């Protein structure tokens, strides 16, 4: 029953959902129209906000592109290929693959959202080796697995609240930082973790398609093959037919090892000074250094990076369109208006749900947790303070309420990504390389998980204490 329902949603989305790029264009027009209807701005102001925001995600887009290609480069190295082969020996059925991908992705996402690339690499490698895997459904498993990141070590909203002189303190909304022991260490957050790590894998096993699988080999574009000349062989083929200094430098393992060792020394110093701080920059740097170590020579590493960079066009040209949408939401006040309206409807009992709802709704236009919280966070937290003051709550109780509202925004933002194809741009460079597949082939499989988790998360944010 549940499998047939999941397939039905998949068929509907395949028929009606456009590509991620077209989705961005439609959302651009819709956001601009809403800004004109519900805020006091002129059409020219909307255009200027759109253009001004267009460039605001360039750094983030470059980080995403680099984390994809550096991780994919590592995946092509001999040590990682051996490790994947060892896992493939133990995992023999499609359902075991689905379970492993969702569970492992959920665990790794607690370290960093960027670890989804590692999960995508493993999933594709298993799809190459194990028969009967429905490849679009496997991509859905990978995409779902990242959603627990807001409960983990890189949760941007929780980390922001614990940052000295953050913008909420500077605006006078907060008088002091809210420590992560109250947000990430709360009963509510631990409940969310259990939900993702226990129910998530079991749900996707239950949803696994029973019909004839659309395997990876069936979806490869004409003329594409998963098996091509090895990186080592390609590097050897580029040598001159006679001894040359250029070839000796291009294949000088010692040169690359010196740079890699220096990089790893810095990483050790960074972790010793700042603890388990795995932000995007240090992760990219780590992946770069590991790639140097695993590929051994400059020529081999350059070839691996060239291959890894072949499918990141979606990230490069689509991120600016979403940044433009974010610019409209920020500059016109539309995003703040949405947050304020939902906050006005909230009561002392229902405020966590409305914060959760606001996080999910605004995420469609601002698919960045930090950016979204900057837009709606202040109005939501101020509404919570008013509710607490009217109820005569203590400072500690008010702080707990604000922490709960902030984390509810984070949960809503993360879950709505299941229906917002923006972050599929991070998965597709790995899993979509050489494959005839679009967002519409994947998102339909995520509707039931979205509905199930929306219902359960709504109950958790309403009734679980901090």
Largest sheet: none
Mean pLDDT value: 86
Order of helices and strands: HHHHHHHHHHHHHHHHHHHHHHHHHH
Multimeric status of the protein: single chain
Residue share in β-strands? under 5%
Q: Please estimate the helix content.
A: over 70%
> Could you tell me the number of beta strands?
0
Radius of gyration: 23 Å
- The termini sit apart by 37 Å
User: With helices defined by DSSP (H or I, 4 residues minimum), what is the helix count?
Assistant: 26
Number of domains: 2
Give structural attributes.
466 residues; globular; single chain; 72% helix; mainly alpha
Helices and strands in order:
Elements: H1 2-16, H2 20-38, H3 43-53, H4 58-75, H5 78-90, H6 94-109, H7 116-129, H8 135-145, H9 156-161, H10 167-170, H11 180-183, H12 187-207, H13 216-219, H14 231-237, H15 245-250, H16 253-274, H17 280-295, H18 298-308, H19 313-332, H20 334-345, H21 351-363, H22 369-390, H23 395-415, H24 424-431, H25 440-443, H26 447-463
Task: Please summarize what this structure is.
With about 475 residues, this protein is an all-alpha fold. α21 (about 350-365) runs antiparallel to α22 (about 370-390).
Would you mind describing this structure in some detail?
The chain has 26 helices and no strands. It has 466 residues and is mainly alpha-helical. It has two domains: 378 residues, no CATH class; 78 residues. Helix 4 packs parallel to helix 24, helix 7 packs parallel to helix 24 and helix 12 packs antiparallel against helix 26. The two termini are 37 Å apart. The relative contact order is 0.17.
